Amino acid sequence: MSPHSNHPHGQMGQRGVTRPMAMHQQHGHDNSGGEHDHGHGGMSHDDRLAMLHKHHRQTLWIYWTLIVLGAWMLVWPATFDHGQDPVDPSGGRSVWLSLEARIWAMNISDIVAGLLLIVLGWRSLRPNRPVSLWGCCFVGIWLTAAPLIFWAPTAAAYVNNTLVGAWVIALSILIPGMPNMIMYMRMGPATPPGWSYNPSSWPQRWILILLGFVGWLVSRYLAAYQLGYIDHAADPFFGEQTRMVLDSNMSHMWPISDAGLGSLAYTFEFLMGYMGSPSRWRTMPWMVAFFGVLVIPLGLTHILLVISQPVVVGAWCTFCLLAAAIMLPMIPLEVDEVVAMGQNLRQSHHKGEPLWRVFWKGGTVDGSTPDERSPELAELPERFRAVSGASLWGVSVPWTLAAATALGVWLMFGPAIFGSDGMPRHAQHVGGALMITVAVIAMGEPLRLSRYLNVLLALAVIVGVWGLAGATLAAQLNATATALLVAGLSLPRGRVNERFGGWDRFVR
Predict the structure, then answer these.
(1) Three-class SS state of 395
(2) pLDDT tens-digit profile of 359-381?
(3) pTM, whole model, 2 decimals?
């Protein structure tokens, strides 16, 4: 912990914009939700402006670095020619640009992005320039996406753009904090009212950052094959089936590399894990909402696409399954923060506060309490079990859901053991995978009700194996018994360890 920090949970919460706000709290100006100074946490406009200028001086190196990165991108096309040993996408995939157009587009993209970073970085050398910093952030987002949109013809271009883009995003809004957030952020306790823990604490977030980074590495490897940078995508279990999946008609339906799109999503996920203070569920509702969309609906879409591979393509891909397996636990791990954010917006609406303003600028919540339970993330090496345990608050594994997960795996292997072809085989593969998905999601205590979906899935599997031709009697009996067991195991709620305020009535 910093020698200047007296807050028990402040070591990462004081990064960037949260650092001066946290320091202000520590010197006796904490406001747990009062509306002093027109809702600005008891600080005058001049106080906040002075803090903004001080913070800007402390982070001035960041804006010079943005200028340097702009110069790097500006000279990249002349230094590392995009047309030197270009490659074509895998599997004879046709793309929307010719090779010459791809090279030209990447050259123009790098030059324009470099110029924008130089201009916007230069403007950011003066304080109170949030538009310039947000402009740099969007340039960074563009740099991470451009190699996919233009099917970058060289691996060097892909690596350079994605890494520089990630650094620009981090330097513009992560390391220094949200632009000008000092001017309006309201201080207050970090634990939502009625909750037994803080869902935005750093121990809660580090595991999501780790999972997002590992998913990024896996998806990046698959994207390297689809973009043509490597000739072969290894698979320890399914061999050439991975190539069949990555080069399938299903994959070719996308205008860009679907593996590259997954890598792009994982990039945003692990970067957004760093974003904001341990109170971000109320100070940055928009960010939590966007993060929740990336993890929950888009994550489910990713998982369902992977599950459909044996039906649509007739093949499996180990690293595709691994990417889905990494995404799956992120859903129950993240949903609690989304619930807290939703409760914050609901309370603000009932108080008569403008919902749109609260969504973008945050606010205070009556009944919040200090976070005195979360351990410090800095203690991870010394107290690994304690910090790791705090990462899993809000997630529990009742034996019923663990058994349902194991039975889902057994159901997926059923066709190979007992014999099935055609639609009954697909019913067992897809049904088992969906049962696993539902059981793992239901391990998130705020989503415990979702376990009842496995009852419907069990009925669908039974209908599939008995109503469609292609399954042996042994396979039918096995699938029926397994499905009925999963349905029965989905009825008990199982243990729930945490409290979620007003959401407790939905945890049944």
Answers:
(1) strand
(2) 998 888 889 999 999 999 999 89
(3) 0.87
